[in-house]
């Protein structure tokens, strides 16, 4: 028995080869945005939500400002008489306290301005008020947005998922050609011009906020009018490029884009899955969008090396139908997704969408908590994400201490096969931003990490299997 224990100690001490240097090509300064609209925009739940986000290690948030919710006479077909560029004409109360608290905490704020729009600003004056928003009206609104929020916003984005018919129509012309990107191009230009007129000389504005996939539209029929455009086709149209990445006309000038933003939700097949369509971009195929951006830069419509921002993401869990996974799988897949983003040097941000599962029928169950406030494994895994990958010679571990603000030490625990006990595999020093990697030959059934902050707060992630 003693001999077996000695052998176990030798294996744990020697077979794990130690922390390795972080990959030189990884996205070392990746920002993590967190979006929790229901909790942050509600005065009753806002204080508790901010405390939770602080515990989780959050330092950046994403907010959506809905034009049609705060504009005067939004349900009228006729535009009322008011000074559209004057911030005092709008009701900002739902957002002001959130942004003020983020400023106090010195958090970054990504503000996405989106639809539905006022009825009077649409071309058809019909619900759901997303059809061909008027560029001039939008520009005037963005002047007011810039004047009101000014430097309190770190980064801006124009529209949420404009390649989806819920937010922008039409997606296609009657002959089946993608059209949403061209409509969006006008909105982007108007929004950027409005922010500058609102007093922001060089606003950082993201293009896209695109959803990851689209339906095929072969043999186009009128009934398919509301199919979504794929993110890459949408990007080309917004940048005035054809399918071969050639400019459509001489009048297509380059856009002042700070980055392209994508919502690369995965499928039920998991984060490593690859869509058969090369125009779709999920978390496992981020390089597709990077390559498309490279081609667009070569065409001269955007700057070279444009960063890719993930500004909405989450792993859907049960009881969401069809695509929902178990709570333990949600924690594992979310960490894998973050590592995939981190490994791509062009990715500038990751994102967690929802603190608590959506209250909407068939809505995304991507939260860290259930609808009734029960904490899922992801709640404990989000501050200290961990992935374990089987390799030819053992296992490769990757992790991140999100609440850490400088280099620290994390304890890696292992549960050996046929054992319920947890043993210390290794204490690993992280890099200056909290990331760490480890190679190990020690066989295990599950791994987890433990970290204690300088203030004495204890974090312990859920058990993770090897993938």
Features:
467 residues; alpha/beta; TIM Barrel; 8-stranded parallel β-sheet; 4-stranded antiparallel β-sheet; globular; disordered N terminus
Topology of this structure?
Elements: H1 2-15, E1 16-19, E2 31-35, H2 37-40, H3 46-56, E3 60-66, H4 67-70, H5 93-104, E4 108-114, H6 135-149, E5 155-158, H7 180-197, E6 205-210, H8 231-238, E7 259-262, H9 286-298, E8 308-310, H10 327-343, E9 347-353, H11 377-381, E10 386-391, E11 394-400, E12 409-415, E13 423-429, E14 435-440, E15 446-452, E16 458-460
Parallel strand pairs: 2-9, 3-4, 4-5, 5-6, 6-7, 7-8, 8-9
Antiparallel strand pairs: 1-14, 10-11, 11-14, 12-13, 12-15, 15-16
Helix pairs in contact: 6-7, 7-8
Question: How would you briefly describe this protein structure?
Answer:
The protein is α/β, with parallel strands linked by helices and 467 residues long.
Your description of this structure?
This protein has 467 residues and is of the alpha/beta class. It has 11 helices and 16 strands. The strands form 3 sheets. An 8-stranded parallel beta sheet has the order 2-9-8-7-6-5-4-3. It has a 4-stranded antiparallel beta sheet with strand order 1-14-11-10. The protein is globular, with a radius of gyration of 24 Å.
């Amino acid at each position: 028995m003693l001999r077996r224990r000695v052998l176990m100690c030798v294996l744990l001490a020697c077979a794990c080869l130690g922390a390795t240097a972080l990959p030189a090509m990884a996205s070392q300064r990746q920002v993590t945005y967190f979006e929790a609209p229901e909790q942050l925009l509600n005065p009753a739940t806002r204080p508790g939500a901010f405390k939770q986000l602080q515990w989780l290690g959050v330092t950046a948030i994403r907010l959506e400002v809905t034009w049609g919710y705060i504009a005067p006479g939004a349900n009228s077909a006729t535009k009322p008489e008011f000074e559209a560029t004057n911030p005092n004409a709008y009701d900002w109360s739902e957002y002001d306290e959130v942004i003020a608290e983020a400023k106090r905490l010195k958090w970054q704020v990504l503000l996405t301005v989106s639809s539905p729009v006022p009825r009077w600003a649409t071309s058809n004056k019909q619900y759901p008020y997303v059809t061909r928003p008027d560029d001039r009206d939008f520009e005037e609104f963005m002047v007011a947005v810039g004047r009101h929020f000014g430097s309190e916003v770190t980064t801006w984005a124009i529209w949420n998922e404009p390649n989806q018919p819920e937010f922008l129509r039409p997606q296609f012309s009657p002959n089946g050609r993608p059209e949403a990107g061209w409509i969006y191009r006008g909105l982007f230009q108007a929004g950027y011009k409005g922010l500058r007129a609102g007093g922001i000389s060089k606003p950082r504005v993201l293009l896209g906020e695109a959803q990851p996939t689209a339906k095929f539209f072969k043999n186009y029929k009128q009934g398919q009018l509301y199919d979504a455009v794929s993110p890459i086709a949408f990007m080309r149209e917004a940048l005035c490029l054809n399918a071969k990445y050639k400019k459509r006309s001489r009048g297509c000038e380059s856009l002042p884009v700070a980055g392209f933003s994508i919502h690369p939700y995965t499928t039920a097949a998991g984060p490593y899955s690859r869509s058969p369509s090369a125009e779709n971009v999920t978390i496992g195929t981020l390089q597709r969008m990077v390559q498309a951006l490279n081609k667009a830069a070569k065409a001269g419509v955007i700057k070279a090396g444009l960063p890719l921002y993930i500004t909405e993401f989450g792993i859907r869990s049960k009881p969401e139908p069809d695509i929902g996974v178990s709570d333990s799988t949600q924690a594992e897949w979310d960490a894998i997704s973050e590592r995939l983003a981190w490994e791509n040097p062009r990715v500038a941000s990751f994102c967690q969408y929802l603190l608590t599962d959506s209250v909407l029928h068939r809505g995304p169950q991507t939260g860290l908590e259930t609808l009734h406030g029960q904490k899922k494994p992801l709640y404990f895994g989000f501050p200290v994400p961990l992935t374990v990958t089987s390799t030819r010679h053992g296992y490769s571990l990757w992790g991140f201490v999100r609440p850490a603000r400088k280099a620290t030490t994390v304890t890696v625990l292992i549960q050996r096969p046929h054992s319920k006990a947890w043993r210390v595999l290794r204490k690993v020093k992280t890099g200056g931003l909290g990331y760490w990697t480890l190679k190990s030959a020690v066989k295990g059934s599950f791994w987890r990490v433990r970290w204690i902050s300088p203030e004495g707060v204890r974090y312990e992630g859920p058990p993770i299997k090897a993938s």
